[in-house]
């Protein structure tokens, strides 16, 4: 089935890009290149059709980050090192892009610390 019209999911705004860009600059103390893309996803797990959603993508130190806009003020996120092991936060969808971005960065930092043994496993990362 073809994806739903992109008109159903609003494009990312300049303000949303600014929030992500500023958050990344604060985290890494430098500008991080971001790419714009689109992804076909199921908004609800029971959906039979795919929706075309705008995406912000960036990479840092071998880790790939994806932030997807799924509706007006609705965002999902994940990070991965290899496609077969995608990780996310404990929250399936956010209503604020800044909170989504910060939670994604924190989940990835926690993952790195757990892998090094510096952080006991306090919360479980969602792995898909």
Account of the 3D structure:
- The chain has 128 residues and is an alpha+beta fold.
- Helices cover 27% and strands 32% of the residues.
- The chain is built from two helices and six strands.
- It has helices at residues 14-28, 97-116, and strands spanning 35-41, 51-60, 63-71, 74-82, 85-88, 126-127.
- It has a six-stranded antiparallel beta sheet, with helices on one face.
- Helix 1 runs parallel beside helix 2 (97-116).
- The longest helix is centred in the last third of the chain and has 20 residues, at 97-116.
- It is globular, with a radius of gyration of 15 Å.
- The two termini are 24 Å apart.
Please report which band the strand proportion falls in: under 5%, 5-15%, 15-25%, 25-35%, 35-45% or over 45%: 25-35%
Share of helical residues = 25-40%
Query: What would you call the structural class?
Result: alpha+beta
State the low-pLDDT regions, or none: 1-7
- Total strands: the figure is 6
User: What radius of gyration results from the CA coordinates?
Assistant: 15 Å
- N-to-C span: 24 Å
Mind describing the biggest β-sheet?
6 strands, antiparallel
- Judging from the principal axes of the Cα atoms, what is the shape? globular
Strand order of the largest sheet: 1-2-3-4-5-6
Helical run tally = 2
Mean pLDDT: 88
Order of helices and strands: HEEEEEHE
């Amino acid at each position: 089935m073809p994806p739903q019209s992109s008109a159903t999911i609003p494009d990312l705004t300049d303000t949303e890009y600014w929030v992500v860009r500023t958050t990344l600059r604060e985290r890494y103390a430098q500008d991080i290149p971001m790419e714009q893309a689109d992804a076909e996803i199921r908004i609800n797990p029971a959906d039979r059709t795919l929706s075309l959603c705008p995406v912000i993508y960036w990479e840092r130190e071998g880790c790939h980050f994806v932030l997807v806009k799924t509706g007006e003020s609705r965002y999902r996120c994940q990070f991965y090192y290899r496609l077969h092991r995608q990780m996310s936060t404990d929250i399936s969808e956010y209503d604020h892009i800044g909170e989504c971005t910060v939670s994604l960065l924190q989940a990835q930092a926690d993952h790195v610390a757990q892998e090094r043994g510096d952080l006991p496993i306090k919360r479980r990362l969602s792995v898909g």
